[in-house]
Amino acid sequence: MLRKLRAQHGPLMFHQSGGCCDGSSPMCYPLGDFLTGDSDVLLAELPLAVESGEPEEKVPVWMSRNQFEYWKHTHLTIDVVPGRGAGFSLEAPEGVRFLIRSRLLTDEESSALNH
Q1: Contact status, residue 14 vs residue 23, Cβ threshold 8 Å
Q2: Cα-flanking dihedrals φ and ψ of residue 64, to 5°?
Q3: List of residues 6+ apart from 59 with CB closer than 8 A
Q4: Low-confidence ranges of the chain (pLDDT < 70)
Q5: Which of 22, 52, 57, 61 gives a 20 to 30 Å CA spacing to 10?
Q6: What is the pTM of this model?
Q7: Residue 96, pLDDT score
Q8: How far apart (Å, rounded) are the C-alpha atoms in residues 44 and 48?
């Protein structure tokens, strides 16, 4: 899905806010269309191979700092599932939606983050 959205919209980014309804789903935007700042945390940069032989791109994943405080002890996975996407997220017209799956970090994972 990310490769398809990249082909349609150019470089991508995700933002996960702490809002309700659509704000509780990871939202996918064209890179730079959602302005981030001091109230956001960069969680990761997902590797995305666009075309065979092309250099890998990174898809930054941002979360509001307040939401991060609740989720900082969890491993997060962005998944794509059938269903109606959020209103402003790029996957909405595709008949799928992005979803956050979470689990608590293991003791080893927590320890590695604290070093």
Answers
A1: no
A2: -60, 140
A3: 2, 11, 12, 13, 14, 45, 46, 47, 48
A4: 18-23, 85-86, 115
A5: 22
A6: 0.87
A7: 93
A8: 12
